[in-house]
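ok, trying the design again with the full structure, not the truncated one.
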């Protein structure tokens, strides 16, 4: 028996529990042609080597295991013992030799009994069926049919076996053969109804079961199955109706209820898969369709489509498209596939139209077309994330940086790994002066694309701008332009110093504010009137760094009164004066008119 493992923890547990038993793992993908070809051979090896543990890992579902085991091609067969990999092989013809080399010798299989009559094979098949050896029962019933191909009961027995093995097409074919041999054989119609039900052919199932009930009106099993079918039909119709109205959670609930009554129905599983896609549970939908392909019907075009659509929406674009193309190869008239392809084409065309407008410089038209594109299929998160990123870029070109940030937010919400969207948002936030936000986004972009030198450079510039933004803006304090010359600086200082000299204020709160402003004004002129200090300040050097530098840098002990006297052409009278440093503020002496200012600048 081959067991499929869908989670990394489960994979590790299987290896750990196996101990020194040999474990063989088939790493496969449902879209992989060679994987399909070798699957029956792998199953037979599992039947033959019962002392060996056989596992399967779908690389699309269990990406973590595939990555940790460094799987680069499918199929790949890894052999493990005591939790460690001991061999790897991609050629299945070499696999049995490795199993014999590393595994425990198997007992030779018991030979199949050689019987004389169909009845004997039938009885042997019945024994195996009762013991749940359905593979063995299948062999016996097939031998019986070969002995007596016109016996209708043999076909219904084999149909029952196929049902247990989840091979519903084969079960339906055998049940049909039984009804052709004997149209009045109720069990044949019953098995046909069961098979059709599991395949989702509700109308055919109802007709078959009704015929069985017409032949045997008192058959409780048939009546119960018909009642079951009616409930399933009600749930399915309700679910499909809800899907059409975008009531997706309600639809999923209806399909779940239907599956409780027919848990092996491939059609119901795929309906549930569609509902899972509609509610955004893409990985669950891909897994559901993968189970149908693996365990029920490897040639189901619908299963390939549901799985492909789910993988595409989940971000595995290339794999998803492979599945969709495979579905169309199997059934070129698959309407769901054709509609999906058409939808993808519509989005791509709308995006391309937007790109053309963008390249021609018509940014508003580009925005309009991109906005139309994201409305076509809201579930298409990966593609829509790219388009929102384009919207962000177009808004930037218009100078609408708030809009640019908004569009980038949408892009990141849809795809948290959209590196360009983080950079677009950071660029606009930089322009808006939101340096802390920009710094975070550049950091994220560097994490997503570690080798990108441009992103690292942007991050460094952003960090510098963030530090710079936290400093006092001396140009703003003096009310001057950043290109102001020395005369403009002096003139601005005189104006601001007179405006904010603490002696002008009597109220305690006002005086305190004035003292702070007067100090800042002094610091500003101290830096901006010194060419070297100003150059360092403009380059983004921290105040503390300026203060700690030698060669005249800093203003750790700035006397704003000295600065005032220097610029006003006189001294400052009264009291002990006012002396400030970056560590605190001294007292204030002097008074108004005559008592405080000797430089000829009375208030």
């Amino acid at each position: 028996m081959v067991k499929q493992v869908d989670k990394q923890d489960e994979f590790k547990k299987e290896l750990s529990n196996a101990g020194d038993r040999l474990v063989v793992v088939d790493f496969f993908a449902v879209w992989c042609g060679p994987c399909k070809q070798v699957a029956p051979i792998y199953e037979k090896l599992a039947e033959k080597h019962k002392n060996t543990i056989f596992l399967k890992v779908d690389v699309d579902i269990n990406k973590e295991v595939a990555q940790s085991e460094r799987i680069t091609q499918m199929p790949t067969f890894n052999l493990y013992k005591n939790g460690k990999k001991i061999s790897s092989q991609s050629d299945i013809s070499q696999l049995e030799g490795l199993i014999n080399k590393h595994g425990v010798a198997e007992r030779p299989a018991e030979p199949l009994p050689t019987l004389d009559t169909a009845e004997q094979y039938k009885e042997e098949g019945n024994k195996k069926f009762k013991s749940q050896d359905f593979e063995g029962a299948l062999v016996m019933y097939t031998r019986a049919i070969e002995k007596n191909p016109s016996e209708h009961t043999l076909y219904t027995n084999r149909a029952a076996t196929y049902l247990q093995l989840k091979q519903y097409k084969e079960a339906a074919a055998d049940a049909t053969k039984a009804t052709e041999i004997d149209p009045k054989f109720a069990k044949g119609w019953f098995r046909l109804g069961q098979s059709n039900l599991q395949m989702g052919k509700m109308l055919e199932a109802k007709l078959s079961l009704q015929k069985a009930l017409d032949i045997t009106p008192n058959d409780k099993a048939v009546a119960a199955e018909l009642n079951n079918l009616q409930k399933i039909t009600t749930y399915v119709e309700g679910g499909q109706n809800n899907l059409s109205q975008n009531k997706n959670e309600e639809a999923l609930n209806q399909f779940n209820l239907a599956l409780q009554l027919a848990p092996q129905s491939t059609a119901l599983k795929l309906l549930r898969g569609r509902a899972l896609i509609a509610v955004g549970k893409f990985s669950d939908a891909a897994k559901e369709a993968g189970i149908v392909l693996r365990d029920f019907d490897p040639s189901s075009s619908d299963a390939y489509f549901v799985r492909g659509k789910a993988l595409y929406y989940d971000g595995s674009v290339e794999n998803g498209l492979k599945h969709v193309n495979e579905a169309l190869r199997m059934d070129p008239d698959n309407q769901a596939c054709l509609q999906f392809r058409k939808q993808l084409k519509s989005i791509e065309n709308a995006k391309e139209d937007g790109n053309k407008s963008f390249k021609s410089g018509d940014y508003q038209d580009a925005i309009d077309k991109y906005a139309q594109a994201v409305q076509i299929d809201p579930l298409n998160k990966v593609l829509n994330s790219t388009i929102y990123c384009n919207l962000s870029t177009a808004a930037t070109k218009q100078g609408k940086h708030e809009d640019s940030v908004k569009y980038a937010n949408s892009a990141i919400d849809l795809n948290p790994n959209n590196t360009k969207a983080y950079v677009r948002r950071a660029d606009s936030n930089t322009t808006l002066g939101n340096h802390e936000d920009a710094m975070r986004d550049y950091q994220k972009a560097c994490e997503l694309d570690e080798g990108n030198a441009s992103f690292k450079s942007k991050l460094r510039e952003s960090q510098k701008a963030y530090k710079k933004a936290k400093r006092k803006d001396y140009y703003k304090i003096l009310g001057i332009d950043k290109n102001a010359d020395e005369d403009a600086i002096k003139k601005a200082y005189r104006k601001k110093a007179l405006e904010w000299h603490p002696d002008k204020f009597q109220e305690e709160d006002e005086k305190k504010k004035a003292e702070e402003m007067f100090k800042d004004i002094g610091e500003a002129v101290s830096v901006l009137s010194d060419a070297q200090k100003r150059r360092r300040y403009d380059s983004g050097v921290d105040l503390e760094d300026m203060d700690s530098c030698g060669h005249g840098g800093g203003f750790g002990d700035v006397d704003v009164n000295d600065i005032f006297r220097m610029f006003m052409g006189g001294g400052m009278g009264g009291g002990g004066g006012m002396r400030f440093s970056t560590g605190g503020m001294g007292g204030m002496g002097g008074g108004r008119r005559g008592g405080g200012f000797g430089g000829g600048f009375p208030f």
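Keeping the full-length input from now on. The longest helix spans residues 220-244.
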